[in-house]
Structure formats: structure tokens, C-alpha cells
């Protein structure tokens, strides 16, 4: 987003001094657990989810390296979501007091955290609208584009081909569909020439058509950050 000053980089490095490895499928935090730590996701991919009354799971967000997670710890004593590793992962835990120092000493970093949370809020609003108002095909197409967008931010050379890294059940839990329905929608999208799939990798063969089918808005593009304070 913006070039960080040496002081800002050093402040973030302090948050990442400790490391905690997670195996695929491990739970970092459970919904309603007492919590006091925040985390930076260093490696791997994770997800946040909630358990619904009928025992089903709703995936809220997919989390990527560089994301600050469990930020709700700043305002709640009990976790409102479960955090689970989708791959082998590494996180850096830090206490709320470290966030207090960062906000005081580096207001631009605090503002960037606010920006990131607003991007997530907008993306979650899109997901909520999609669950209530769009077709199954649109929901699955949106997940593909969301994953591509995040992966491209981490790897500018990823182009139109990327490793999806999600099971059909996980896509279903994010879109409110069954795994069978997800499979059917992926086949339909592929048959319509929008994507190609091979060995767990997805290639966007007609990205414009896919974005139109998904009513997709890339919430990481078109940011207006001219208001940010100067870095320290």
C-alpha cells in the first residue's frame, strides 16, 4: 500500500519476534475462548469461522501471510471466531500492550491497520450480499477471484494461474453451498470457458466474464490513502 519508514518496519518486526508453528487443521483460537493475544500470520494460510446453531460451519475470511489476526482481542475478552490453519502455518503472537505502544508511537501504522480492517469489512459485506442475493455460480466465481486477488498481492508473478488451496467443502462453507453443489458450479464455470483446472491449480481463462458472473469488486484495488499521516 505505502512504503514504510525504517522506524515503522522496526516496530512491525518487534511484533514478529516470537514464532508459533501450526500444523494443517490446528486451531489457534476457538470461538468463545478467553483471549489476550493478537497474531501476525507469517507463513501459510488460515481461515476464520463460526459454528452455527445447526452444527454447520460458516467460513468468514481466508487469511494470508502478513495479515494481523484476532484483532477482536482488542475489544472482546472472548473470541468471536475460530481461527484454523488451512496449511502448515507460522504465526507471531503478541500482547495487547504491544499494540498500545504501536498506536502511540506510530500513528500511520495504526491508520493502516484501520484501513485493512475496513477492506475486510467491505469484503465481508460483499460476501453477505452474495449469500442472500446471488446465484451459486456467482458465489463460487467470487471465491476464485478473491483467492486470486490475495495471492497476486503476495506474488506479483502469479498471473492468471494459482493454486487454489481449498477443498470443495471449504468453498461450500464460505458460500453456503454443499460440496456437491460447489463441484457442479466449478464444472459449469470451466465448461463455460472462464477457468481451466489441473492438479489443484486454477487458470483464469476469461477473467472478465468470471468477474461479470460474480459481480466481483476487488476491495484491495482503488484505495484512497491520501489522508494518511506522515510516517515516523
TrEMBL record:
Keywords: DNA-binding, Transcription, Transcription regulation. It comes from the Bacteria. It holds the Pfam family HTH_Crp_2. CDD domains: CAP_ED. The keyword ATP-binding does not apply. Residues 134-208 form the HTH crp-type domain. Gene3D superfamilies: Jelly Rolls (2.60.120.10), Winged helix-like DNA-binding domain superfamily/Winged helix DNA-binding domain (1.10.10.10). InterPro entries: cNMP-bd_dom, cNMP-bd_dom_sf, Env_Response_Regulators, HTH_CRP, RmlC-like_jellyroll, WH-like_DNA-bd_sf, WH_DNA-bd_sf. PROSITE patterns: HTH_CRP_2 (PS51063). This is Crp/Fnr family transcriptional regulator.
